Amino acid sequence: MFVSKSFLALHSELLNTITNQETFKRMNKRQRSLSQETEELLNKQVELEDISSAIYLSMASWCEINGYENSAAFLYEHTEEEKMHMMKIFRYINETGGHALVPDVTNIKHEFDSLRKVFEEVLEHEIFITNSIHNIVNHCYSSKDFTTFNFLQWYVTEQREEETLARRLVELFDIIGVDGIGLWTIDQEIGKMASGSGGAGTAATAPQA
Ligand code: FEO
After folding, report:
1. Going by CA atoms, what residue is nearest to atom 2 of ligand 1?
2. What is the CATH number of the domain that holds 112?
3. Verdict on whether the full-model pTM lies above 0.85
4. Which of 59, 72, 75, 128 lies 20 to 30 Å (CA to CA) from residue 193?
5. Same domain for 195 and 104?
6. Which residues contact 166 (CB under 8 A, 6 or more apart)?
7. Which residue's CA lies nearest to atom 1 of ligand 1?
8. From the alpha carbon of 85, which atom of ligand 1 is closest?
9. Distance, CA 52 to ligand 1 centroid (Å)?
């Protein structure tokens, strides 16, 4: 059978390309600075940040249809912040030789008992996220991954600020009370905490990331 020279040349070129790609992949793997365990922990955190975003989106929607427009605005804003938290880790994983995985977030609840319950759950969730971040920081310190340890310091600071903010929101219910125009007033105060309003949220989450 006649095979043209150009076909053989093309075939050989293709084989070279594949071989080079395989070599590159192997080299890339050897040169990765992220350990497998740290990569898995970071991918888990990517998922948790995405879950946070979805939870706050669901809470925002509930607030909106129940007439708490300022609380909804606050929570919509935090939905975006959590997405950004997720993306920072996502990009870091790939930049350091790992493989960032897109989370599959399901089973987000859509109903809440009250406005107070919404913000109590926000606080509870933020404490959970803080513990998760601290767990990865502890792992990085123990395994001498000082690059990721350093990268995560931003999250340590962010979590302290987010917890403080969530506590202040829950305290509003005790300070103002929910009787009469109490809930309306609380919703107004929560609106002032959103960064877009120039309220406390601006100072508490200055990097907004
Ligand atoms: Fe990204 Fe609110 O934790």
Report:
1. 126
2. 1.20.1260.10
3. no
4. 128
5. yes
6. 119, 122, 123, 126
7. 82
8. 1
9. 6
